[in-house]
Structures are given as C-alpha cells and as structure tokens.
Amino acid sequence: MRAQSSALARGLTLAAGLTLILAACSSNGGSGTPHQGGSAGLASCSTQGKANTCNSGTTKAGGTFTYVLEKNIQQWNVQDTNGNTFENGEALEVVLPQVFVPHPDFTVAVNTDLVTSATQTSASPQTLVYKINPKAAWNDGTPITADDFVYYWRTNDGKDCPPPPASDSTQTKGCLPQSTAGYDRIKSVTGSDGGKTVTVVMNKPFSDWKQLFGAGYPLYPAHVAEKLSGAKAGDAAHMTAAQLTQGWQYFQKTPPTKYATAGPYKMQEWVDNDHATYVPDPKWWGAKKASLQRLIFKVITDATQEPIALRNNEVQGIYPQPEVDLVNQVKDIPGVTYTIGNGLTWEHFDLNLHNPVLGKYTALRQAMFTAISIKDIVAKTVGQFDPAVKQLGNHNFVPGQAGYQDLVTPTGQGSGDLAKAKKLLTDAKFTGVGTALKTPDGKAVGPFNCRYTTGNQIRQSECQILQSDLGNLGVKVTIKPIGAADLGTVLAGHQYDIIVFAWVASPFPSANAQQTWMTGGGGNYGGYSDKQVDQLIDQAVGETDQTKSAALLNQADKIMVDAAYVLPLYQKPTFLAAQTRFVNMRNNSTNVGPAYNTGEWGLKK
C-alpha cells in the first residue's frame, strides 16, 4: 500500500500520508460521475462499466499538458519504504516499465509493450513465465532481459540485500523495500531465449503473483546498477549485498534524467520542488507513440492553489483530495470537466501502540473508537460534496471488491455511542470516566496528540471532531499538524499518538495485508502484532484460490477489529479535473493514479 500525501498509499501507498494508496464510472468504485464546467463533458464516463475507456479519444500531435504533483519528490526509489509515495510512483511510471498495470476498474492488465505474455504454467511448484517483448530495450540500447527481473527480485526479497541494521539511522547499508511480499517466496529467477524468457519458480505459492515486477512498482535498469557497482554486466544473480546496496542507493538519489529508462516519454529535466519535464522518447518501441510535445508534472503542495492554476491555464489537470471549496471552484472553470469517484483509497485513524497506555489497554482503544462518530465526520467533511460516502467496515477490502464484509459497524466502533464507550471503560475499571480519565492503576490517560498533514482542511476537521468525541470520555487531545513532506518520517519514527491519513491500495489485498498488518511489516507503523493474524495473513498470501484467500483475510480482520488499532473511516473520494481539449486521462483510483497511461494523453483530434 502507498500512503497518500497532503492531497494523497505496491500494495499500499500513503495518501496525505504514505503510499498502500482508487472502477467503473459509477458511485460504487472507480471513476465516478462526470461533471461539466464549460461546454464539454466526459460523455463516455456517464455509462456504468466504462471505467477503462472514460474520456477516450483520438489525439493529434503537439501541445503541452501540465499535471499537478501535490508533494515534492525527495528520493527516487519507489520500491524503497521511504520512496513509496503516490507522487513518486506517478512520476516514475511515465518512464519505467512494469509487467502488470492496475486499471480504473480494479483489474490488472498485462503491459504488452514490456511482455507479450505473463502466465502461471504450473501450480506445484508454482511457476510463472514471462515472455519479454523482443523489441523491449532501455533507451541506451541495452535490451530488457531476465537480468532486470533478477535484479528486482534480489533487491526486494529481504535476504540478498538485507535491511540496514537498527544502528544505521541514515540507512547507508542494505535495501529497505516497502514490501517483500512474494519476492521472499521466490526460489529462482532464470532467463532463456537470450534472456527474453523469464521463468520464476516459487518456494511457496503466492496468491497475488500478478503484483510481482509491477503493479505500480516498475523495473529499474539492472545494467546501470551493475556498471556503477563494479559488478559483471548481465550478472545480477551474483551481485554482492554491497553491490546491490550501491545500486539501490543510486536509484534513491538519482532522478531518471541521469540513467536509461524505457517509456513513451523520457524525463528531460527535474527541478527540485518545482517540476519534471518529459518529452517523447524517440527510442520508444511501444505500439503507441507519445503525441504531446511536452508533459510536465508541476509540484504544487498547497491544494488551494490548484483550481487557481487550472483557471489560469498554468496547469491542465489536477488530482487533489477533494474539499467543498475546491470542488465548487472547479465547477465554475470553463472548458474543464471533473469526476468524483471512490475506489481503493481509504481514510483512517491509527493509534500508536508504542505509546505505553494505548498499547496496554484494549478496552481503552475500543472505547475511543466507539466514542468517535464517523457519521458526524462524514457529514462535516466529504459528505458535503459526495453524499454517497458512508462508514467503511473493513481493513482489507472496500465496497466493490468481492471480499468486502462490514466487520466494524456491528462492534459499535465509529458509532459515536458515548454510553457504550463509557461502559467499556467502567467495566475495565477505569476511573474519571467523562471528566479526567485514569487507568485502573490510577495513571492519567493522555493527553494524546492527533496528527494530520498541514493544509488539509478535511483532516484538520477530522482531528477536531475526534478531539471533541474523546473529550466526552475525559481524554484530552491536542491537535498537532505535520509538514506536507514529513508524514513518512512521523510514521516511521512513531511520532504520534493518533494520526489520520489514507492508504492508496493496490488491487492485491493479501499482499497489502502482509505489508500493513503483519508483525514488522513495512507499513505497520503503529507496532500492531498478533500471532494468529500473522498466521492467517500468511495463509492468505499463499492461497491461490482468491475466495479462500479473502475468507482468511476476513478472519484476520475480525481479530484486528477487536484489537482496535486502526479505525477505518470511509472510502476516500478521488477528484480528477482536466481541460476538455485533452483526452485519455481518467480517474484511476488505484495506487498508480491517473498517470498510469500518460503515453495515451494528448490533444483531442
């Protein structure tokens, strides 16, 4: 998952948080309903089931399209825990290839520019075969081969390039992948047919095998890492841990203007904290050539400035977290359409179990979550522009996914039932309920801080409502904003008691769960640990029957709900606005975002 940043979650990405980080053009998932400002609209999005073809059109050569990134890119390795942000993923998927690409309807599709096929050829042992497109090459002329897959595997398996030791606070040693899911189950990756056929044999089955080598986490050029580290060319299989680390860190520090890439565009320029400029890559072998003269990703960290930039034609497309004022401003811009959709991005409150009081008392956490009124939160925030939003009842699935079950609402969590919350506390021998809450052994509960990314009015309001609701229990809460670029640091450093952000999930729930809920998972910032949950998720990851895998995840989720570690709030609405003179950009509400198909963007013919 990716966490999403201030406007913002492989599995998960952060949203206004980090990258777990939304299907058909309908309210139950995906692109949503189109709205018009000006003369034209996204007519193709008005029919349910058209998520993957919304705003389709033939393009003509020329034009510049400027798209907003809401967060600066501070490091360039999107596979790294600290580089796993939504904005980084969008900027890199323009120029780096991946096998499977998440689409707006939550499905994943083979990227036939990179591979002509990707299939499971055996179940025991699970064997995956990728046929690399014979034309596929990095733009320095080096063919894309099995060596690139081997390099990817060995830097992400958690073994060949071990994570930095705890004493290495600057992380100068080893690799720190945002998730080892699947890669830690691979026995071998071998090449044949001149390196154009890749055969992957698994030690243990992996349910979400289509996540491997893609799904928002693209390949990096192995030959670049080999050369700079002194390794033998084409021999990623024998790179030492030190050499793998050297490559990993190079891709952290280096924008893709400096090394070979493979996409319809190449990055011509990166100006830190300002913009990236892409131009068509003449070396691109793919079926569709880029039609734009220039594609620009402009960094605007203050979402309130995005509608102004769109009105002034400084940018032609924005993808902010929607707020009432922002949506109303965009409505009045001529020649612009927008869509509001719901998908794999979901908002939540997290408790930090490293806090000794929060970590010790399950009844306290349950009472806190019961006292919070999600209905009130929705009504005062996202419900003002999307009345279809309602409480989310699961940590692993959202409505629109086959495995979704509401496991939270029946417990009363999120109900705002103050009487029930107080009873949970008194039954557990807490005192001062409703005035100045104390633990059964007489220690003060709180004060706790509630943290959110600065400039996000919705999240500020969510913390304020939480502050009021918990005050009714006798728990004092202070509100402490986080700098827009500091969410990852705050999460990884456990610098919070309560925090609100969003995960942007991939369409692979078991891999998301492994990253986010298992003991020691890369996205398990609050320190949750339960042996039975670990076992159930591990079973789900290895279960190739998706129905059985979902059932295992829901068994785990029931335990997690009772533990009251994370309170799901709602599927987060997504908001894409673009000038109507451009076509083929659409609201992909998964972890890859609208930039999943930038090679098709262009001026309407």
Question: How would you characterize the overall build of this protein?
Answer:
- This protein has helices spanning 86-93, 146-156, 222-229, 241-253, 306-311, 324-331, 356-360, 362-371, 374-380, 418-427, 457-471, 487-492, 509-516, 531-541, 546-563; strands at 2-4, 13-15, 33-37, 59-60, 64-69, 100-102, 108-110, 115-123, 126-132, 186-192, 197-202, 265-271, 275-280, 294-299, 317-318, 336-351, 448-453, 477-482, 498-504, 566-579, 582-583, 602-604.
- It has 605 residues and is α+β, with helices and mostly antiparallel strands.
- The strands form five sheets. Strands 1, 2, 3, 15, 16, 17, 18, 19 and 20 form a nine-stranded mixed sheet that branches. A four-stranded mixed sheet has the order 5-14-13-12, with helices on one face. The protein has a four-stranded antiparallel sheet with strand order 8-9-11-10, covered by helices on one side.
- A hairpin with a 4-residue loop joins strand 10 and strand 11.
- The longest helix is centred in the C-terminal third of the chain and has 18 residues, at 546-563.
- The chain is globular.
- The protein starts with a strand and ends with a strand.
- Residues 5-44 have low confidence and may be disordered.
Q: Which overall shape is indicated by the principal axes computed on the Cα atoms?
A: globular
Residues in helix, %: 10-25%
Residue ranges: pLDDT <50 for 5 or more in a row?
5-44
Report strand %. Answer: 15-25%
Chain-averaged pLDDT: 89
Q: What's the end-to-end separation, in Å?
A: 37 Å
Radius of gyration: 23 Å
Look at the helices and sheets and give the structural class: alpha+beta
Largest sheet: 9 strands, mixed
Helix tally equals: 15
Quantity of strands, as a count: 22
